[in-house]
Design a protein that fits this description.
This protein has 152 residues and is mostly helical. It has two domains: 41 residues, no CATH class; 85 residues, no CATH class. Helices cover 45% and strands 7% of the residues. The protein has a two-stranded antiparallel sheet.
């Protein structure tokens, strides 16, 4: 596909044989990590990390027009950015926004479900998510994941 676009020298440098060792590690039982984003080529390998903008909060009945109004704020990386390490970092922010919006009595277009009370006040999510995160970081989650037949 790249023949004619890249020079022969570049094509030799990005040959698939320079990726195979990484692929072999990723596919092996000895792979030390999962869930990483890596760049690889020409014998060079680097891990990428995610950076999250501060984002914008919305009422639970927000519309596509509301999203467009705050589009610049959503992608503004000049404010308080964070570097999420796992899914729980995102869940904490999402659930906190949900709980704040519910406690402020904002209108929602959600259909009430049997577990709505769990999210809105029967228990607080932050301690639960911190406990889950600690459990995963301590290396204790593998058996729970197998038992739940879930991915994390």
């Amino acid at each position: 596909m790249t023949k004619g676009i890249m020079t022969e020298e570049i094509l030799r440098a990005v040959h698939p044989k320079y990726i195979v060792p990484l692929v072999a590690v990723l596919a092996s039982k000895e792979c030390p990590d999962s869930g990483k984003v890596l760049e690889v080529g020409a014998g060079w390998i680097a891990e990428l990390r995610w950076e999250r903008s501060e984002g914008s909060k919305h009422q639970l009945d927000f519309t596509p027009e509301d999203v467009l109004k705050k589009w610049k704020e959503i992608g503004d990386f000049s404010k308080k950015n964070t570097y999420p390490n796992d899914l729980m970092d995102s869940f904490e922010i999402m659930v906190k926004n949900y709980e704040e919006a519910k406690s402020e009595g904002k209108k929602t277009t959600e259909t009430k479900s049997s577990n709505e009370g769990e999210l809105s006040g029967q228990w607080k999510s932050e301690p639960v998510y911190k406990l889950m995160k600690a459990y995963v970081e301590a290396g204790l989650a593998e058996n729970a994941i197998k038992k739940c037949d879930a991915s994390y």
